Amino acid sequence: MVSSAAVLSSPSFRDELLRRGGKSAGRCYQCATCSSVCELAPAEAPFPRRQMLWAQWGLTDRLVADPGVWLCHQCNDCNVRCPRDAQPGDVMQTLRALAVEHLAFPSFLGKLVGNVRFTWPLLVGVPVAFWFFLVALSKGFAIPDVDAELSFVEGRFHYDGFIPHELIYAVNLPVAAWVALAAWVSGRRFWTLLGGSGASRSGSFLAKLVPALVEVATHKRFSSCSAAGQRRWGHFGVMWGFVGAAVTSGLLVVYLYGFDMYPLPLTHWVKWLGNISAVLLVVGGGVLLANRLRGGRQAGSSTAFDSFFLGIVLAVIATGVLTEAGRFLFDPAIACVVYVMHLGVVLTLFLTFPYSKFAHLMYRTLAMVHRMMVAPNQEGRG
Amino acid sequence: MEALGGIAKEAGAVTTLTHPCLCEEAGIKAVRDAAAEHSLDGVLIAACSERSKREAFRGFEGDDKGLYRVSLREQVAWSHPAGEEDTRMLAEDLLRMGVVRLQKTTPTRPLDEEVDGTVLVVGGGRAGMEAALAAADLGHPVVLVEAQARLGGHLAMLSSLVPVRAPYATPQPNDTDELVSKVLAAPDIRVLTSSKIARITGQPGQFHIELSNSECSSTCRVGAIVQATGARSYDPKRLGHLGYGVSPDVITADELEAMLVRGAVVRPSDARTPKRIVFIQCAGSRDPEHLPYCSSECCATTLRQVSGIHSANPEIETVVVYRDMRTPGQLERFYLAVQEQAGVLLTRGETERVEANGKLRVHLKDSLLGDAAVLEADLVVLATGMVPNSADGEAIRELIDARKRAETSESKTQREESCNRSEQLAHHEGTEILNLVYRQGPDMPALRYGFPDSHFICFPYETRRTGIYAAGAVHAPMSAAEAAEDGWGAAMKAVQCIEAARRHEAVHPRAGERAVPDFFLQRCTQCKRCTEECPFGTLDEDEKGTPELQPLRCRRCGICMGACPERIINFPDYSVDMVASMIKAIHVPEEYDEKPRILALLCENDALPALDAAAAQGRHWNPWVRVIPIRCLGSINIVWIAEALGRGIDGMILIGCKYGDDYQCHYVRGSELANTRVGNVGETLQRLVLEAERLKVVQLAHDEFERIPEVLDGFAKELEDLGASPLKGF
Q1: Domain at A83, CATH number
Q2: Do A226 and A370 reside in the same domain of the chain?
Q3: Longest Cα pair distance anywhere in chain B, in angstroms?
Q4: Residue range of the domain that includes A212
Q5: How close, in Å, is residue B274 to chain A by CA atoms?
Q6: What is the pLDDT of residue A1?
Q7: Are residues A251 and A296 in the same domain?
Q8: Are residues A221 and A365 located together in one domain of the fold?
Q9: How confident is the model at residue B155, as a pLDDT?
C-alpha cells in the first residue's frame, strides 16, 4: 500500500469524475456488498469498494496505479446488488476512462479523445475527409466500371483500380508504427506504476503473458459474470472477428506480394476466413448493441467515451461488410463511397487505440499479467 | 384430584370442589356458588399458572382474602411424570403452601387520600411543550415551568429541523414558534417562564410545589410531574486536541447553527467564506475520556447543516468525517440525499487531531483508506454530543451526609474519609432541579451517564421516583421528533399515575395493587435500612430516623420487608410470616427416605415466566424442588433462609433478575440487594453447621427458559453430591 498519508484532492478531480459519468460514486457508503458479490475480485485486493472510496477522495495516483480498475470486466453484478444504487460498475468504467487519459502519450491526444463528447466529429471527420482527399488526389476519384464478364462470385468490379493497395499500406503502416510507439510509452508508464504499487512480482513477463492471453482468448473471466452474461459472447465475437479480420488482411498481403494473386476468388480459404470473421463481428456487435439498448442496471449507463468506441467498432463492421457486399450488389459509386468511409473509420479506430476504450486491450492484459506475477498461485479466482 | 382435595382440607380448607374447566363460565359459577354457600373469604385455585387466565378470575380480588392460585399445570402436570410418588408429593406440598398462604392473608384497608389531577411539566422545550399539550388534551390542567425567559428550548435556536416527512431529502422549516404559540394559547396550560422550583413535597396525587422567580413565589398542588429539562452540548473547551480554543476557525455545531440563523457562514478568523468545511462527528462522544455514549442526533444535525450550507452556497465544499453514520429510520434517505450532492464528501475515519498552525489540517487514522489521511480545511465544525440537564439526587444526598459526618464524626479517620468524599462530590452542589424533599435526595437518581431513566427498554419513561417521569433529551439523547413523542409518552404515564392514585392503586409494575406495607413502628430500631434501600424513595424519615411511608409512592416490591431485621414491615397479602409459614408447610421426608427437598424462591417477573415457558415447552425438572413465587428477590427476608434450612430442607435457590449496569430488575436493585444480603448470611449458616453451597443465588432473564430446568437440575445434583442436610429431623 502507499505509505504516505492520503490527502483529499481538490474538488477538480471529483468534478471531472462527476462530469464523466461517475456521479453515483457519491452515493457509496462503503458497505462492500460490491466486493463481496464480485466474482472477479481477487481475495487479497478486492474491488470495487476500495476504488469507490478512492474515487470519492479523488486519489488519482492510486487509481492509475491500480490493477483492480482493469481486472474489472464490468459484469455489473455490483450494480445490480448495490443497496444504494451507487453503480460501482459504471464508476469503474469512468475510472478506466480517466486512467487511459492520465496515462496517454502524448497527453494532448489523451485529452482530445477523453473529451470525445465534444470532439467526436473531429475524430471521425478528419480521417474520413483525409481519405476522400487522398483518393481524389491520387486517382481523381475514378469509379471503376462494372465488368459484365465476371461471374457473380468473382464480383462485379475490383477496388484496386479505385484505390491502389500501396496507398493503403503507405498510410496505415506508418500509422500503425506511430500507434505502437504511443501505446508502448503509455503501457510502460502503466507497467511501472503497477510495479510501484507495493506488491512484488516474481517470474518473467513472457511466461505470464501466455496464460494471460489464453484467458483473453477464451474469455474465461467473463463467464463468471452473472448479471450480464450474454455480453461475454458479444465481446467474444467482436474480439475474434477483429483477430480474424487482421489475419485476413495479413494473408492478403502475403498472397498479393508473395504469390501475386489478386483478387482471391470468393471460394478461397482466406476469403472464407474473412467472411467468417465478418459474421462474428456482425453478430457480436449486434449482441453488444442490443445489451446497451436494453439498458437497466446490469447494462450500466453509457458514457460518451464508451459509446464512441462501440460506435466506431460498429461503424468499422458496418462499412467493412457493406464494402465487401458492394462489390457484388451495389452501384460502384455507392460502394466506393462506403469503402472510403471504411478506410476513414478504420484510421480513426487505429489512431485512437491508445486513447479510447480500445486501450483496454493493452491495459487489461498488462493488469492480468501483473496479477499473475504478484499472486502466481491464485489464478483460479480473479 | 380427590386425594389432593383431602390434603387441602387437612391443611385447613373449608370445602373443595373439582371442575374440568374452572376458567370458563360454568367453572367460575361453581366457585362463586361454593364461596357463597360456605361464606368463604378466600379461594385457592389449583389449576394453571397465576400468569394465565388472569381475566377469567378477575373479581375475586375484592373479597377479603381474595384469590391465590397454585400452578398445578405448569409446575406439576406439564413438568413431571404422571403417577409417580414424587409428583404426587410435589402437588400435595404446593397445595399445602397455597392454603397456608391464603390463611395468612389479612384484609386490605383502603387508603383515604385526596388526589389532584394537575400535571407539572418542568422544562419548556419540545418534549415539555408536547407533554403539556398532551396532558391538557387528556383533560388535565398543566403547570409548565421554564427556567429561561421564553419557551422553545434548544430547538428555538435552530435554522431548520431534520426532515420528518417524505421524501426526507431536505431540512424542514423550524416550527418551534408555532408550537410555542399553541402552548401559550392553550387555556388549561399555565406557563411560568423565568421560574424555578424551590421545593417539592408529598407523593403522587398530592405533590406540593413551591415555585420561585425573580419577582414572586407561588405554590401549587399537582398529581404528577414530567421532567423535560433537556440537554446541553458537551463542553468543547475539553476538546483541545480537535483544535477548539487553539484556532478560532474550529467551532461547534451550535456556533455554526448561530451563523446559519444569521445568514452567511464565514471563517471567524477573517470573516471570509470558507472553501472547505470539515465536520468532525463524535467530537467528544463515544469516548471514555469524554462522553462514553452516542447522542444519536449529531449525525442528522450535521447532515442538516451540510444541506443548509450547500443550498445557500454550492461552491463551499463540505467534508464529514464520521466513525459511523447513525441515521435511524427514514433518516437514511436524508443521508443519501445529502451524500449524493456534488461537493459533499462523507467519509469514515477517526479524527486523531486537528493541526491548527496556519492552515487547519485534520489528521485521520483508521480511515477506510487503510492508512493515515489528511484533510485541509478552512473551517472545522465539531459535532458535540448531548449532556442531560439532570441532577443526581443520590449524589447530592451523599454529599450532604458526608459533610455532616466530616463535622460530627468522632473518629479522625472517618472525618478524613468523609472530607475526601465530600470533595469528590462537591461538583454536585447547587445542581438541584426538582428540589424534592425526599429522604434519598433532592432529585431523581441519575443512572448511567446522568440520565434519570429507569429501564429504557422494559419500562420507558419510568424513573425511580414514582409519579415523576422523564421526557426528551434529559431522558435519553434524542431528536426533535423523538422528543415530541417522548413528551406524549411521559404525559400518558403522568395521567395514568394520577388515575391510579385516585383509585389508591399502585402503578407499574404491580399496577392495580391496593395493599400497602404496614410498619409496626413500636418495634422499629431506626436502623434506616428500609429508608435507604427503597429503590423508589418511598420512605421519608422523621428526625429520629423512623420511616414515614408515603403510600402513593410505593411500588409494592417488598424490598423494605426484605431489609427489615426486626421483621416489622409486612403487607396484608405478603408478609415475612406468610412465606415462613409456607416454608413450614412443606413436608420434609426423613433422611432414610432419600427424598431431598429444595426450596426455590422465584422472582415473579422474570424467573417465574421463564419456568412457565419451560413447562409449556414440555421440559421436566427435578421433583424435589418446591417453588414459591415472590415479588422480588429484594423482598427475601433472611429469616426465610434460616427457616428453610433449619427444617432440614437440603438446599435453597434464589432465582432473580440480572443486575448491574444493564439490570433487568423491575425494582432496579432488588436482585442485587438479595445477592449482598445472602452474602452476609454465611455466619447464620455456620451457626447451623451447614455448607455455604446449600444456598445459591442465580440471575436469569425472562427469555432464558431453556436454562431454568438445567439450573434446577444442576443444583439438585450439587446437593446430592453434598449429601443430605444434617438438620433433618431436628
Answers
A1: 1.10.1060.10
A2: yes
A3: 96
A4: 107-374
A5: 14
A6: 39
A7: yes
A8: yes
A9: 95
Name the residue range of residue B128's domain: 119-230+431-502
Q: What is the pLDDT of residues B492-505, one digit of tens each?
A: 999 999 999 999 89
Q: Which residues of B touch A (CB under 8 A)?
A: 317, 319, 325, 335-336, 339-348, 363, 367-376
Instruction: Tell whether B365 and B380 lie within a shared domain.
Output: yes
* Residue at which a domain ends, from B528, B552, B570: B570
Query: Do both B259 and B344 map to the same domain?
Result: yes
What cell numbers appear for B138 in the block? 387528556
Which amino acid is it at A369? V
In a domain, B729, yes or no: no
Give the domain-ending residue among A103, A134, A169.
A103
Q: Is residue A207 part of a domain?
A: yes
- pLDDT single digits (tens) A236-267: 999 999 999 999 988 988 888 888 877 787 88
0.95 exceeded by pTM: no
Residue B49 lies in a domain: yes
> Could you tell me the CA-to-CA distances from B104 to A152, B13, B523, B701 in Å, in that order?
120, 13, 21, 30
On the question of pLDDT at B447 being above 70, the answer is yes
Q: Is the pLDDT of residue B476 over 80?
A: yes
Cα–Cα distance, B138 to B79 (Å, whole number): 47
Using an 8 Å CB-CB cutoff, list chain B residues near A84: 336
Residue pLDDT, tens place only, B586-640: 999 988 888 999 999 999 999 999 999 999 999 999 999 999 999 999 999 999 9
Cα A71 to Cα A47, A379, B480, B618: the distances in Å are 9, 12, 48, 58
Give yes or no for A16 touching B (CB within 8 A): no
- B421-437 pLDDT, tens digit each: 999 999 999 999 999 99
Q: Is the pLDDT of residue A11 over 80?
A: no
B293, B286 Cβ separation under 8 angstroms: yes
Distance of alpha carbon B73 from alpha carbon B54, whole angstroms: 15
The verdict on A58 and A43 lying in the same domain is: yes
Q: Are residues B268 and B357 in the same domain?
A: yes
Give A34 to chain B, closest Cα distance, Å. 15
Please say which residue of A103, A125, A146 terminates a domain: A103
Position A230, amino acid: Q
Tell me whether A8 touches chain B (CB under 8 Å). Answer: yes
Chain A environment of B380 (Cβ under 8 Å):
none
Count of CB atoms situated within 10 Å of the CB of B582: 25
CA distance B363 to chain A (A): 9
Same domain, A97 and A234: no
Query: CB-CB: which of A5, A27, A57 is closest to B371?
Result: A5
B259 and B361 share a domain?
A: yes
The answer as to whether A122 is a domain residue is yes
Of A6, A23, A26, the CB nearest to B369: A6
Give the whole-angstrom CA distance, residue A80 versus residue B524: 75
Q: Which residue of A13, A27, A29 to mutate against B (max B Cβ within 10 Å)?
A: A29
| Residue B415 CB partners (closer than 8 Å, separation 6+) | B405, B406, B409
Answer yes or no: do B344 and A26 touch at CB < 8 A. yes
Which chain B residues contact residue A6 at CB under 8 A? 367, 369, 371-374
CA of B335 vs chain A CAs: smallest distance (Å): 9
Is the ipTM, as predicted for this complex, more than 0.95? no
- Residue A299 pLDDT exceeds 80: no
In chain B, the number of structural domains is 4
Contact partners, residue B78, CB within 8 Å, separation at least 6: B615, B616, B618
Residue B658 belongs to a domain: no
- Round to whole Å and give the CA distance between B270 and B248: 10
CB contact under 8 Å between B372 and A24, yes or no, is no
**Residue A326 placed within a domain:** yes
Confidence band of A232 (pLDDT split at 50, 70, 90): confident
Q: Are residues A115 and A96 in the same domain?
A: no
Q: What is the number of structural domains in chain A?
A: 2
